[in-house]
Amino acid sequence: MTTETQRDRVGKSRPLDKSWLPWGGAPSSKDLFCWYGIWLVFAYSFAMWPLKPWLIGTNPVLLEAMTGAQSAMTAAGAFARVGEAPLALAVAAGIFGMMKFAWVFWLAGRLWGENMLRLLAGPAQEGRAKRRLGLLTRDTPARRWLIGAAVVLEKVPMVPGPLVFASAGWVGMRLPTFLFLNLIGAAAWTGLYTGLGYAIGQPAVEIAETITDQAVWISLAVIVGGLVVQTAMSRFRAARRRS
């Protein structure tokens, strides 16, 4: 795995003028491109949540390409089993859905280094966030290989994808290497979930179609639930800052 040395990356952890920005001084065109790209990715991901119930029972292949969601991959595999979608297309769409935005966070780590990792880890550098940073920001050969493995295993619970991708950029992993490792992981996970749906077949199709039949209420519940969770988290953080 080709990497840069710590000295080569000195400029990538610039002192910050504002705690909520990952760069110091005047932003370059690359800074602005990457920063707005990250926010567009987050906005896109949020906007996709209400659409999932509408598409999972009608066009799960399109849904997995748009979201990279495991549930969509499983449904697509089931649709392929009953002859309503090509299996190869279901696998290809899942791989694309998982990989399409990963490079944005790799670029963020490349540009801003540990500053970006701290933003992604969360505002309170204690507990779980502190352990994540301790694991991902120590520049040793073992840590670089660990980050490479984490890129492959990004869908494992407790492995935060954006943080891992930014870490890969920060330690100097080349873009072709990063994309290759990301492709291995995406293909493995897509094959697993698509194969699961293919094995289940018609029952999974019926479940997906039932979800779509109730899409209006499910979408409303997702929107309301997301707003409630965000409000509760904001109040919790404000209370912690006051205490």
From TrEMBL:
Keywords: Membrane, Transmembrane, Transmembrane helix
Lineage top rank: taxon: Bacteria
TM helices/strands, residue ranges: 32-49, 87-108, 178-200, 215-233
Protein name (record): VTT domain-containing protein
Organism, scientific name: Streptomyces halobius
